[in-house]
Specification:
With about 350 residues, the chain is an alpha+beta fold. Helices cover about 40% and strands about 20% of the residues. The chain binds adenosine-5'-[phenylalaninyl-phosphate].
């Protein structure tokens, strides 16, 4: 067989091998076998030295031609196999976008936050502003300006955590009254505010007492404000919170910063007033302390008590939430047990 014929045969064989190969690795193997340094093509071309000088360029150019043809076939097959591999991978990695996704647990507001926000919304609707106070408060504002001078016996009802003699964790939200009153400009209209926040007392923790709890202070100051305005406002609040059919009752009480002072009860929402374990068989549930602002409190904050009067109240949202949701121990609110807290996940 002449060298030319050998080359032609090699070409045909190589083309068949290339077209039959079914992986990139195999194709690479074939390329080395034919065109590599020790490949069959190189082997054949070594025989060129035995050719006549006239035949050498003829066979040489044929060899180049064959090399080009085979390179083309190799490239073509390579592209074909790469495409096949990519399509296979795409088919295997297909994502079904209709499958349900992983649900992410987002948590929810604490039930006390939800309760306070609900109360805030009611008062915003009545035209009140929301004021924030300081949790670390001066004795001056927590007690003195609330008409509780040093050595006043009523200070015993609200024993505090002192940081220094003059600095303490506030025992109620009432100091926000003084801080707001002293800044208020009556030429801009009456003062109507609520102030929600944390308060602290040296109470022994039990089912209805916590050393840290919440209060929402309310204060309205204008000309001619009376106890009637207080009653009407609280009626709106408590009916919205506990139901339209609730009645409210004011009982005389004592706070140094209000005169007269009252405790406010609502008719029991469980038994409707007949008497049950929730209302301790009285038909009524105590919900907040309130009263007409003491003239001395107004004067100490620079307000003319002969012209202006006002009402104030202090509500315990922890107790409101306990009553509304039948929680029988206030400490559950502060134990961060998700089994308890998740019950109030409004998002479900
Ligand atoms: C006061 O703190 C007054 N500053 C409220 C007030 C404001 C009266 C304005 C008049 C005018 P009292 O100590 O009663 O009042 O507390 C008010 C409410 O806070 C109570 O009705 C109760 O709901 C809640 N509370 C009091 N102590 C605790 C406690 N240890 N744990 C949980 N809630 C409490």
């Amino acid at each position: 067989m002449s060298l030319k014929e050998v080359l032609e045969e090699l070409k045909q064989e190589a083309i068949t091998k290339i077209s039959e190969s079914d992986s990139l690795a195999q194709l690479n193997e074939i390329r080395i076998q034919i065109l590599g340094k020790k490949g069959s093509m190189t082997e054949v071309l070594r025989g060129m030295k035995d050719l006549t000088p006239e035949m050498r360029p003829v066979v040489g150019s044929l060899a180049n031609e064959i090399r080009d043809v085979l390179s083309e076939h190799l490239e073509g097959k390579k592209a074909e196999l790469e495409l096949k591999a990519m399509n296979k991978a795409l088919a295997e990695e297909t994502i079904d976008v209709t499958l349900p996704g992983k649900t992410i647990k987002t948590g929810n507001s604490h039930i006390l936050t939800q309760t306070m926000q609900e109360i805030e919304d009611i008062f915003l609707g009545l035209g009140y502003k929301i004021v924030e106070g300081y949790e670390v408060e001066q004795d001056e504002y927590n007690f003195e300006r609330m008409n509780l001078p040093k050595d006043h016996p009523a200070r015993d009802m609200q024993d505090s955590f002192y940081i220094t003699e003059e600095l303490l964790l506030r025992t109620h939200t009432s100091p926000v009254q003084a801080r707001t009153m002293e800044k208020h400009d009556f030429s801009q209209g009456p003062l109507r505010m609520i102030s929600p926040g944390k308060v602290f007392r040296r109470d022994n923790d039990d089912a209805t007492h916590s050393h840290q709890f919440h209060q929402i202070e309310g204060l309205v100051i204008d000309e001619h404000i009376t106890m009637g305005d207080l009653k009407g406002t609280l009626e709106v609040l408590l009916k919205k919170m506990f139901g339209e059919e609730r009645n409210i009752r004011l009982r005389p009480s004592y706070f140094p910063f209000t005169e007269p002072s009252v405790e406010v009860d609502i008719s029991c929402f469980k038994c409707g007033g007949k008497g049950c374990n929730v209302c301790k068989h009285t038909g009524w549930i105590e919900i907040l302390g309130a009263g007409v602002v003491h003239p001395r409190v107004l004067e100490m904050s620079g307000i003319d008590s002969t012209k202006y009067s006002g009402f104030a109240f202090g509500l315990g949202p922890d107790r409101v939430a306990m009553l509304r949701y039948g929680v029988n121990d206030i400490r559950y609110f502060y134990q961060n047990d998700v089994r308890f807290l998740n019950q109030f996940n409004v998002k479900g």
